[in-house]
Protein 1
Amino acid sequence: MNVGQEIRSERLRRGWTLDDLAKRGGVSIGRIHDIEAGNPSSVEGYVRLALALGLEPRLTVRNERVARTARDVDPVHSAMGEVEAAHLRSLGFEVLIDEPYQHYQFSGRADLLAISRERRALLHLENRTRFPDIQDAIGSFNGKRAYIGPELAARIGIAGGFRTEIHVIVGLWSAEVLHSLRLRRETFTSVGPDPADRFGAWWAGTIDLLKPGKTSSIVVLDPLPGRRSSRRRWIGLEAAMTADPRYRGYADVADALHRAGVA
């Protein structure tokens, strides 16, 4: 059982805020947020929250080696998230990885979220190493960009919700992905119609210049830029229509990561 998800689902079903549960369970808001996000906590913390919600606490165990293997089954996807998280965190943003969300029948996990509480700003990145099923990828992205902002804002206590939401599909900078983008150009343009400059503001750490609103964009990213610091890490959809690929496909990137000792 995913304890954090169960606790969050029951809290939302009851219409409780994080503060409501904190008061009833004697657990801090920050600790509840960590638990709901899937981060490990003490048995006492789980029991306090379960009892406050009327849930029956049960003890389970798992093989952590198996869990790690499951997470690392896609090393290229993991490498993309690692690059993004390291860069955005270095700029002072709060970063959440594999963050769960639920809105009635819609539920899932966001690959990466970057948050500025002061600016009430959210960046949501959906990483894609390939597009074997374009409609499925688009459906997942549409659900997340519609619901994850309000749900997350309510969960972590952003009063009034996020003023700025940037949702981005981040494709691997490979010939395989570029081919998909070019083959279905109008489809991807419809899903990510906004220029990538707002994503660029997050990447540059200049989000104070962003105007309020919600936008959706598509970029391609290189998780292994090499030694040249001037080499572009990412480009937007328009540039991707004519840019040369950095890699032929997924396998080439996986091999490069292995040779670099990071996968």
Note: The chain is about 45% helix and 20% strand.
Protein 2
Amino acid sequence: MADMDDTILETKGLTKEFRGFVAVNGVDLRIKRGEIHALIGPNGAGKTTCFNLLTKFLAPTSGTIKFNGIDITGEKPAQIARRGIIRSFQISAVFPHLTVLENVRIGLQRQTGLSYHFWQSEKRLAALNEPARALLDEVDLGGFADELTVNLPYGRKRALEIATTLAMEPELMLLDEPTQGMGHEDVDRVTRLIKRVSAGRTILMVEHNMNVVSSIADTITVLARGSVLAEGPYSEVSRHPAVMQAYMGTTEGELQGAHA
């Protein structure tokens, strides 16, 4: 129990059933503070359902979720977000017809009590420009501040989404397939970005790209059929016989090649 102070999020026996189908089956997770923790597994393994349980978009059938030692199992999504568990969605969730700067400013409004007050005077909102620009610089979007978001390339939109997530000052940042649908150049850029913004933060990510996982994740949990198959650093998990078996035929090459 000595290292429990290092644990930011913990689940015990987390289970979700849908009319007899067990999507998540007795999952025990322990996310260490300051780490990048990756949740991987074949399609249908229960990764996104697990994310939905952690952010309370779904209620668990059984099991418990603790955040900073506090039982949050019965809390609503808004309560979870106020605690500092902020999720970045799989499909880019930004306002396309606002500027890049305005998108980040909306995230910052939460911290000022001006949440969703789109009619606030420009003068009051202008006070948020400096911190918004600082966040854009952090994700290499400083030069795009006045660009309409709809005009951004896909990879840059995902970087903007990370910036808006950071604007909400997450203590635990949940990234749902942050590199999905990207070309190699964008994947590399976003991977470096995640590594950079992880400094002083904790990140839990669902990710299919094994190159991404192998290069930045401190700990990896492998799910298969809703249960934990293996857990540990990539060097161990990638050689686990059950993990290799679970990936056979679809992403076996990924597991073998990503660490090369």
Note: Residues 249-253, 256-260 have pLDDT under 50 and may be disordered.
Protein 3
Amino acid sequence: MADQDSAEIRWPPTVMVVHPRERPSKCTVEPLRGREDFLFVRFPTKVPIPLDRYIRLGMGGPELSESDSDRGLLVLDGTWKLASRMEPFYSDLPVRSLPAVITAYPRVSQLYQDPEDGLATIEAVYVAHRLMRRPVSGLLDHYHWKDQFLELNGWAADQNVPVAGP
């Protein structure tokens, strides 16, 4: 892909820590595997790069903003319950939260309550990249609810352009 040339990447790769019980068929970020701007690690494998300039996407921290754009981004991928089990292993990374965004991902869990403002992992990555002014082109290409997600949040017309706000 032309827009994924290593010469164009000016920031650390987004690290996706995937819980081993996350099914690839249900994993919304699986299609990003193999891109130069993403590094996939299967939990609990140690991330093979230094994380000293990374932040972790999560809940309860200051809101992610353009001022974080020079930092690396680490994202925990799994159900909400599995992701919460991984959090202690990355507690040394500063947490950044996302602003309120509407999910298009249908909630089906009858066992556990998802956070009201919870997003599918690919939706969260998309929003984080927008806020950090990183290219979003191609991120949602394989996401079944792409059109609904973009429309619900007023982004249908500018999905390939990084912008400052959500």
Note: The mean pLDDT is 84.
Protein 4
Amino acid sequence: MSEALTAEESIVDDLRVLIVDDHDLFRSGLRNLLEEQGVLIVGEAAAGQEALRIVRDVAPDVVVMDLNMPGMGGVEATRHISAIAPLTRVLMLTISDEDTDVIDAILAGACGYLLKDSSIQVLMDGIRAAAMGESLISPAIAAKVLQRVRASSTQPEIESTIRAELSEREIEVLKLIANGKDNGMIASELHISPKTVKNHISNILMKLQIDNRIQAAVYAVRSGIV
């Protein structure tokens, strides 16, 4: 247990975070809270365009991004960041829990979606998850994203890529991810350890060149295999 905690602490110590929000007081307060947790704040931005300039200059590990801002908003900024800095992860932190806002942000490439009334511990969990390429998104939100993807046009040519790149076991895991199962549920259903599930997911993301599990789920749904 102590080794796991040490590893997790080292992740926090090494994290370089950019805060993007158009409210000065909120940015200042959030900066203080995160610095108390050992996070290195490498910049602040009040709008999307400014955020892009900072991302290009310093390539932060995680961007904590507001949704609604003057000029370029959070969704458009996230889309640009995903294109110009694929190793920089975006975590949305906003007051909006509207389905459309959530879905648009995730499909733009956000690794997670949290509300501003979240505790600092939940926010730290979200930042850690984003830094490791994982997603902190509730199953209900994930289900809404996939429902929207199912309603849009599928791309059956993706199925051949999935079947060519992944093993049968990895395809099983991918299908369960797309059905909203977390690692514990997948481990139970396939009678394997959670660590093995995590290894499978890492392999799936690497082989399909995808950033996180919610994007893997979207990919699977678009292919028609689930």
Note: The longest helix spans residues 194-208.
